[in-house]
Amino acid sequence: MSHKYIKKSLNLILVIALISVITMTTAPHSFAASFSDIDNHWAKSYIETVATYDAISGYPDGSFKPNSNITRIEFITIMVNSQGINVSSPVKGQYWGEPIIEAALNSGLILNNEYGNMSQSTFDKNISREEMASIVVNAYIKSGGVVDPLVLHRATTRLNDFDSVSPNYYEKVIASVAMDFITGYPEGTFAPKQNASRSEATVVSYRLLQKMGIINSKLPENIIISKDKLKQGDLLKITIHHVSDTSIISLVQDLYPDFKWDESKDFIQGYIPTNYNTSPGVYSLKFTNSETGRKSTKDIQIIPRDFRVQKLKVDSSIEASTKTEAANAEYRKYFNPSRDNSSPVKYYTEPFLIPVKGRLTTEFGESRTVNGAATSYRHSGLDIAAPRGTNVLATNRGKVNFSMPLILTGNSIVIDHGEGLFSVYFHLDKLSVKEGEIVERGQKIGEVGSTGFSTGPHLHFTMSYYKVSIEPGYFLYGESIHS
Ligand SMILES: [Zn+2]
User: Fold this and answer.
1) 400 C-alpha vs ligand 1 centroid, how far in Å?
2) What mean pLDDT, rounded, does the chain reach?
3) Which end is more exposed in the chain, N or C (fewer Cβ atoms within 10 Å of the end residue's Cβ)?
4) SS3 210
């Protein structure tokens, strides 16, 4: 197979002509291609890789518009480029796509009148996923690829909406799935009539180049952060795609000393919790791939939030009797280990719910002055006042790691939700679940009470990443909660 890439940049052609060492048929250029709007996008590694092979290009303003629809002519251009087919320049006044359409017709990527009339407006329409499937399979077969009939047969049951594919595209759609050019959506659909995005088209192009033996290297890691601005108390998630071995990536950061990666099939992930002790400012996450030496940096901004100050007047003799060393020792001995280990797999799939409805009396992170003097105390969760006996519900599905009475916090429950996320419930009147039990989202786990050192019936509710308390509001409502 011979593949000549169309070089769009005149400068590049000049450079190559000047050094006259690299021929037009060699592998990728050595500089990294990138665009202004693909950072933190799921398809970033695909886009950068395919762009290096000149099969795709961005817009003059430096953007790629990864989520925009792709037109028929744009996708045909990608496929023609992937094939290394020579295309003549359009003559003056001619529609720019005409020579490309001609090349695609001549090489059998599309059929004459496939889309009805062959006018510019026809080719400027967005391409559907079934049309895309047909072109990529044609390109693959024209370049010498073979589709194994057995694999083809097995693919007929891989997705559940093949019956909605247009009859003339049916075979090619099945072949595109059989060959993994198009894998379908997580819910098991192909969505044949749906428009394809520029990202999806890029992935299809990547897989074609890979199957044609043009791309041999692994995809570079793609680092995705859940947000780049966090308020104190929020939880940051980091996912790195195209890496399956946690030992390859090292992360240097100043936010969370106990950071660890979890491995999955084709990605690794980890969390960084922040709370009221996290100083606001900009923090750098510095990643290094020990296999390739590639370094990347992501900057995270921690935004301050106002934490309320509670002014308590306490009889000094009462304070002395409530904070006993025996109570603290019991808490340390039994409660502390309950958040040491978490399931590596999430127990939940649904959103979190508020465990009891009532009046918010103490916010997350509130500090306290006692008899006018500042204390180091910070409130680890939410206090929700409600009548004694009100049902307390599990905020989400999980495993009960702890359920017992303690002097300090009364009847107490800890639920592990997996991946290091825990919910904690204190001062319950009654415990309704046992350690080791799996509880469903919204299941009754106890009743509101005032057990332990509490001044009245309320639920103390904490959410934490291991032992670092985080603002429950981000899980319940997507924002911090204030009374
Ligand atoms: Zn509390």
Assistant:
1) 20
2) 89
3) N
4) helix
Q: How far is the CA of 306 from the centre of ligand 1 (A)?
A: 18
Query: For residue 233, which amino acid is it?
Result: G
Going along the chain from its start, the domains and CATH numbers come out as: 10-211 (no CATH), 222-303 (2.60.40.10), 309-476 (2.70.70.10)
Which residues are bridge partners to 314 per DSSP? none
> Which residues have C-beta under 5 Å from ligand 1, the single-atom ion?
383, 460
Span from the CA of 381 to the centroid of ligand 1 (angstroms): 6
What CA–CA distance (Å, rounded) separates 355 from 441?
10
Distance 9 CA to ligand 1 centre (A): 63
pTM of the model: 0.81
Least Cα distance to 99 among 187, 161, 163, 6 occurs for 6
Task: Report the separation in Å between the CA atom of 349 and the middle of ligand 1, taken as the mean of its atom positions.
Answer: 27
Residues of the chain with pLDDT under 50: 1-27, 29-30
The model's pLDDT over 344-373, given as tens digits with 9 standing for 90+, comes to 999 999 999 999 999 999 999 999 887 888
Distance 301 CA to ligand 1 centre (A): 28
Q: Residue 419 contacts by C-beta under 8 Å, 6 or more apart in sequence?
A: 262, 269, 271, 342, 343, 344, 345, 346
Q: How far is CA 244 from CA 183, 211, 221, in A?
A: 20, 22, 10
